[in-house]
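hey so i finaly got around to running the thing on OB-fold domain-containing protein from Arthrobacter sunyaminii. pasting the sequence first so u can double check i didnt mess up the copy paste, my clipboard has been acting weird all day
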Amino acid sequence: MSTSYTLPDLQRPMPVPTPLTKPFWDALAEHRIRIQYSPSLGEYIFYPRPLAPGTLADDLEWREISGAGTLYTYTVSTRPVAPHFAKEGTLVLAVVQWDEGPKFSTELVNVAHDDIEVGMRVKPVFCDYPEAGITMLRYEPEN
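ok and heres what it spat out for the 3d tokens, dont ask me to read them lol
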């Protein structure tokens, strides 16, 4: 006896901003990138947190960054990373190191797989999902 299975039509999961992460998501909705900066450390911080790492200073402030960066690493995922992504096709999952220092997990878009190189310059792409009320940050080659 043979059984068939049809993948459910699941929607891509979307982030849910919290009071702590809201400034990041609000900036993305305006097609800007704001992350935390610690004056006591003299460093930008990402992911959002209530206290500076290492020092536990409560001096974190939100500052706008360019979002430009360098491809730190990537993987081409030919299989869905979860059932929600079954209809997405191949995804290029990546880590971008912002010029300001922190690394950011994302997806690469608008690039042929053969043209991807670790160390290549990348720029932000703002992907609006109005039905979810969220903007996602992705990256593409700078040139």
